[in-house]
Design brief:
CATH architecture of the largest domain: 3-Layer(aba) Sandwich
Number of domains: 2
CATH topology of the largest domain: Rossmann fold
Strand order of the largest sheet: 3-5-4
Number of helices: 13
Low-confidence stretches: none
Order of helices and strands: EEHEEHEHHEHEHHHHEEHHHH
Structural class: mainly alpha
Number of strands: 9
Oligomer: single chain
Distance between the termini: 77 Å
CATH class of the largest domain: Alpha Beta
Radius of gyration: 25 Å
Shape: elongated
Length: 356
């Protein structure tokens, strides 16, 4: 805006390949093709490495050689979201307006309020967008709709907030069709690939809890009539470790893998059912594993798998478009108490197994 300070992202970011002159100064140019460093960074984040610092500077960027007639596409400053957008724009010229979502992806940021009306308005003004483009349209990802009021954006900036397709891959067709979306590109999918790509970070998030639970259960396995027996602890250690691994597998791997076929709407219920399947497999395999545990100890292990599987699967409510923010909160309030009760009963049965 005339007379105001215009914010620009840094030009020395690793993925910036140049700059383009605008009436308000230089705008960083970024390539549509991802580099090896971009891909490695993406793989690391999928394993939860540097997840909360994988960001780009908010502000206006250029792809190709955009003019004042080129489209303006809005994204989050979570670099995976930013990269997903730019890699679909090969051979095109566009402006990309990056919001400060504090390193959170579009859908989650919309639920948290960081991908919202206030931030859209602020970034349009901070970028001096009205002096860069000759039109008044900004295209936002559809998953950002819960956080943005299009009428309010237009009232405060004169820019029309138009919601594009769910997936960045559908943007080229959307733009070629005159920014008209078909019903199919409006449809939200949660495919097998979408589900499994989340598995590594969920497993990593559960790693410390799993190690601590396995170590605690193995150590508690020695409690019994003689107060404490190291040989008894060693005898039950394999069952303890197997049960903890089984709980993680049920919740973080099997539940998302079988998600469409597991009955129930709540992820916690689906995780519990996946836990039942793993617990059944554990009962069948226990003789093969050389686990000569009592029925009480096996019951404790199975209950732990079911409760842990439920908890692990429930984490997917925050990474799936199947549920709203309110739905996540409602599911957690309904499920966490019985998950805690199940884990506590499993612990009690495990200790009792030293006597039976």
């Amino acid at each position: 805006m005339p007379g105001s300070k215009v914010e620009r992202p840094r030009l020395d970011q690793a993925f910036v390949i140049g700059a383009i002159d605008t009436p308000l100064g230089q705008v960083p140019v970024v390539p549509a093709t991802l580099t090896r460093a971009d891909r490695i960074g993406g793989y690391k984040v999928r394993w939860g490495i540097g997840r909360y610092t994988y960001t780009v500077d908010p502000g206006l960027y250029a792809i190709g050689a955009p003019t004042d007639r080129s489209p303006v596409l809005v994204s989050a400053n979570y670099k995976l979201s930013f990269d997903a957008l730019r890699r679909e724009l090969s051979g095109r010229s566009a402006w990309v307006l990056v919001l400060d979502t504090r390193g959170i992806n579009v859908w989650c940021a919309a639920g948290k309020g960081t991908f919202g009306t206030e931030e859209v308005v602020r970034r349009i003004e901070a970028a001096g967008l009205s002096l860069v483009v000759a039109h008044n349209i900004v295209v936002l990802p559809q998953l950002g709709a819960p956080g943005v009021s299009a009428p309010e954006v237009r009232r405060r900036t004169s820019f029309r907030a138009l919601f594009g397709p769910v997936r960045a891959a559908d943007l080229p067709a959307f733009l070629d069709a005159g920014m008209r979306a078909t019903p199919e590109v409006r449809r939200v999918h949660f495919t097998l690939r979408d589900r499994l790509v989340l598995v590594p970070v969920e497993m990593k998030n559960l790693l410390l809890v799993t190690v601590a639970a396995a170590a605690g259960a193995a150590a508690a396995g020695g409690i019994g009539p003689s107060v404490y027996s190291l040989s008894a602890a060693l005898a039950r250690a394999l069952l303890a470790v197997t049960a903890c691994i089984g709980a993680v597998f049920a919740g973080a791997v099997l539940a998302p893998l079988l998600l469409p076929w597991l009955p129930g709407r709540m992820f916690s219920v689906k995780g519990a059912l996946a836990g039942v399947l793993v617990a059944a497999a554990l009962l069948v395999a226990s003789p093969l594993l050389g686990v000569g545990a009592s029925a009480v100890s096996l019951a404790a292990a199975c209950l732990l798998v079911v409760a842990g599987g439920s908890f692990g699967a429930m984490n997917y409510t925050g990474t799936s478009t199947f549920t709203s923010l309110h739905g996540v909160e409602r599911e957690m309030s309904a499920s966490v108490p019985w998950q805690i009760a199940g884990a506590a009963l499993a612990a009690a049965l495990w200790i009792a197994g030293g006597w039976f």
